[in-house]
Automatic annotation (TrEMBL):
Pfam families per record: sCache_3_2, SPOB_a
Membrane-topology annotation of the record: Multi-pass membrane protein
Lineage of the species this protein comes from: Bacteria, Bacillati, Bacillota, Bacilli, Lactobacillales
MF GO annotations: ATP binding; phosphorelay sensor kinase activity
Protein location: Cell membrane
Protein name, entry field: Uncharacterized protein
Domain SpoOB alpha-helical intervals: 331-368
Main location: membrane
Keyword entries, A-Z: ATP-binding, Cell membrane, Kinase, Membrane, Nucleotide-binding, Phosphoprotein, Transferase, Transmembrane, Transmembrane helix, Two-component regulatory system
Organism annotation: Vagococcus salmoninarum
Domain of life from the UniProt record: Bacteria
């Protein structure tokens, strides 16, 4: 897999840091603007307050009335400049003639700037920025009134923009230092946050997580076993397709998500209470055996849920018996071939010596049912799975010394639909288990194929206990599900001294399947 140029840790760090830088930069801009505005408002307020203070001074009023500059008024304005760190305090007459100025040469000269008109002509206080003899400056103008409330002059107090810039520069330095400190702390936080997130993601890159997720989903959905995942509250959170099929069988629902696992599989609580990890435990419900494994899901030493793996034991049991039956079928074929040659030699020898009595006894012996059962299965049933199955069933009955003979008519053709054959064998096995439990000494079986159907007929004695128990068996959920899955049916007929159980299943031979394929003309 191609590695990314930047690791997830680096990208997270840069992303978080970028967000912090943008936020802090915006805050820096807004705070800087606020400082400028606040500083200017504060300076304007200071200028006007000082102007009002000087406008009430009697020395200033007397100088303006006489329109004469005196050393006292010059000292007063110089003291104000020094105390309030101002660049100039100018007292001017209504004719805009300066009576005070930091530069004595400018006294008795006209005031420059042009922004004093409002204060001179209308008698209102104003604040403005204009260029005078000292350069560009922030200036406040306050009119001076005598006792009769008549305007007699104007006081101009100001500070050059150079001085204001120095004040703002100092404020910006302090703010910039705070900004740098904030960015350094933000970098540390970004690195720590990115490292923590990377650890939460098990040190994996996004592409690696995506690949692992797809691999997990592919494995999860294609498992033959049913997989069920629960959380800490034992609620179902995840189920694969095989698990849905099994839950439909067990709980008759296709939507298990969010439900308690105990409501779907009641016996699972017993398994959970015994051990934390369970491997291959047998669970039985509705007559079907299931193989269950339970394992905890542990994250950072804490159990956050459980994973259950469930498999229908019917498939395993059927496969095991199929292998045994196939082995028995192969052995029968081998022995039949060998025995057939031996029998031919014996018959030829007895015929050659003319011992008719011995030949008759020998022929009767080889034609006995027990001797020719396997031969009939091989010759009359052309589906090896069914033939092997019946041979295996006969062995089960013989172990309990019970008769097992099957009449085959007509012959059973081969079929490619092995799944239906397997389900048919499951139904037959249920009936045989019942017959073995009843230890019947006498019953008859007939197996035949006609009209694309496989028909199995049992002739059973009319017994007051046997028949009700058989009816109960045939109406169990397990047997009923098998019938629905295979589209099969059964009938139980009372014939006086005996009952007939007829089990019918759709069965299409391989030859008929080939004939059903439509011809396509090119």
């Amino acid at each position: 897999m191609k590695k990314s140029r930047f690791s997830l840790w680096m990208r997270l760090t840069l992303l978080i840091l970028l967000g912090i830088i943008i936020t802090v930069s915006f805050l820096f801009y807004r705070i800087n603007q606020q400082i400028i505005e606040t500083n200017q408002l504060r300076q304007e307020k200071t200028l006007l307050e000082l102007g009002h203070f000087l406008a009430r001074d009697q020395q200033v009023i007397a100088a303006l009335k006489s329109e004469t500059s005196t050393p006292e008024i010059q000292q007063l304005t110089q003291a104000a400049e020094k105390d309030f760190d101002l660049d100039f305090v100018v007292v001017m007459t209504m004719a805009k003639i300066r009576l005070t100025h930091p530069n004595p040469e400018k006294i008795y000269q006209p005031f420059e700037g042009g922004d004093e008109e409002q204060a001179v002509t209308k008698g209102v206080e104003t604040v403005s920025t204009a260029t005078g003899t000292l350069g560009q400056s922030l200036r406040g103008f306050v009119p001076v009134f005598d006792r009769n409330k008549e305007e007699i002059g104007v006081i101009s107090i100001g500070m050059t923009t150079t001085r204001l810039s120095e004040t703002l520069t100092q404020a910006r330095k302090n703010l910039s230092l705070s900004l740098c400190l904030s960015l350094f702390i933000s970098l540390m936080i970004a690195v720590f946050t990115a490292f923590t997130l990377k650890r939460q993601m098990h040190d994996l890159e996004p592409k690696e997580i995506g690949i692992l997720l797809e691999e997990r989903n592919a494995m999860f959905q294609n498992l033959h076993d049913g997989v069920i995942v629960t959380n800490q509250r034992n609620e179902v959170t995840l189920v694969n397709q095989a698990g849905i099929v099994i839950i439909e069988k067990l709980a008759h629902t296709s939507k298990p998500f969010g439900k308690q696992i105990a409501s779907l599989i009641p016996m699972i609580t017993e398994f959970q209470s015994r051990t934390k990890t369970i491997t291959d435990e047998i669970y039985q419900q509705n007559g079907v055996d299931y193989l269950i494994s339970v394992a905890p899901i542990v994250v950072r030493k804490q159990q956050v849920g459980q994973i259950l793996m469930i498999r229908d034991m019917t498939d395993l049991t059927s496969l095991h018996e199929q292998l045994i039956n196939t082995t028995a079928y192969a052995s029968s074929l081998q022995s039949q071939s060998h025995d057939f040659l031996n029998k031919l030699h014996v018959i030829y020898g007895l015929s050659d010596i003319g011992d008719a009595e011995a030949l008759q006894i020998y022929l009767q012996k080889i034609l006995e049912p027990e001797q020719e059962f396997s031969s009939r299965m091989v010759y009359l049933i052309h589906n090896p799975i069914i033939a092997g199955f019946l041979i295996g069933e006969r062995s089960r009955f013989l172990e309990k010394q019970l008769p097992f003979m099957v009449e085959i008519y007509p012959d059973i053709p081969p079929s490619s639909n092995q799944q239906k054959v397997q389900l048919w064998m499951n139904m037959v096995r249920v009936i045989h288990d019942f017959l073995l439990s009843q230890t019947l000494k006498q019953f008859a079986m007939r197996l035949g194929y006609q009209n694309k159907q496989l028909e199995l007929v049992y002739t059973l004695p009319n017994d007051d206990f046997l028949i009700p128990a058989l009816r109960s068996l045939l109406h169990t959920k397990y047997f009923d599900n098998l019938l629905k899955t295979t589209n099969g049916r059964f009938t139980l007929e009372n014939q006086g001294q005996a009952y007939k159980l007829i089990l019918t299943l759709p069965y299409i031979s391989t030859k008929e399947e080939e004939n059903d394929i439509p011809n396509i003309n090119y």
